[in-house]
Amino acid sequence: MKPPASSRLFHTLRALQHENPLGLPRTGTIPRMQRGLPERRKIKDVAKVVAVSSAKGGVGKSTVAANLSLAFARQGHRAGILDTDIFGPSIPTLFNLSGEPRLSLNNQLLPMSNYGVKTMSMGYLVGEDAPVVWRGLMVMKALQQLLHEVEWGGLDVLVLDLPPGTGDTQLSITQQIVLDGSVIVTTPHTLAVKDAVKGINMFKKVNVPILGLVQNMTLFNCPHCHHDTAVFGSNDKVQRVCREHGIQVLGDIPLHPSIGDDGEQGKPTVVSEPDSSRSQAFMSIAAQIGKQIGL
Ligand SMILES: Nc1ncnc2c1ncn2[C@@H]1O[C@H](COP(=O)(O)OP(=O)(O)O)[C@@H](O)[C@H]1O
Ligand SMILES: [Mg+2]
């Protein structure tokens, strides 16, 4: 008798887990060569690399990544941002940049700059609105180009804006690139926090240090009655997850219409409202990250 589909699926997943197709380490420290993984490479001419990640989309990852790169620049570092979200690039909009990047004499992509930050995005190469209907192999090829064929020309810190999820792109990046740390972004929503845990576990599995968690859209301060409201729920869940996983909360970013508007108009909060408390929140998070990675 044929087993029901659900049970077949269960056994297939079990078998895949057993085979460990992604070559993830199951325990502790098996030497890298023995696992057959490629050596992690440094991104050329870049001193420190920080990945901003969340397993969920729409939690403000790109907004946080963009503001952090701008905060690093304001703190005097040579900063860049690499948009690795091949299917949904946001950096061209957030930095108000478009057009095709030029090639260097060495045939490398030259980043485009605004507000003192160098940027590279798939959005420049295929157009932000173009639907990218690609198979895995093409995505991986595009990713390789973004990771290894950009002439950054000397950066103190590069922020990677990761796509949502814990799939091929995230694993390729974490396994191929020397990352100095990762920052997890979540909102207080129960579902977002659950997904944040997946992100935490992925970074733990691939031995990338987790620098901390940024809670975005935490409180909304009503402009009329000036009361703070936890629109998306209390931050107890985030605190608990951080305690359980030994991770620190790097800071809270409020839910504020101008954070969304600033980004969508191509001038993120750190440059459009540099003296606001919102901008200070990003600056403080960047300073803590900088301290941890030795910027
Ligand atoms: N703190 C915030 N307050 C208000 N709007 C925000 C905030 N953070 C992000 N947004 C908005 O939420 C939407 C999703 O943010 P985005 O950075 O694109 O998320 P992700 O990269 O995780 O998909 C965007 O329209 C953005 O402008
Ligand atoms: Mg994004």
Automatic annotation (TrEMBL):
CDD domains: Mrp_NBP35 (cd02037). GO terms for molecular function: 4 iron, 4 sulfur cluster binding; ATP binding; ATP-dependent FeS chaperone activity; metal ion binding. Belongs to the Mrp/NBP35 ATP-binding proteins family. One of its GO terms (biological process) is mitochondrial respiratory chain complex I assembly. This is Uncharacterized protein. The keyword Iron applies. It comes from Neoarthrinium moseri. Pfam families: ParA (PF10609). PANTHER family: IRON-SULFUR PROTEIN NUBPL (PTHR42961:SF2).
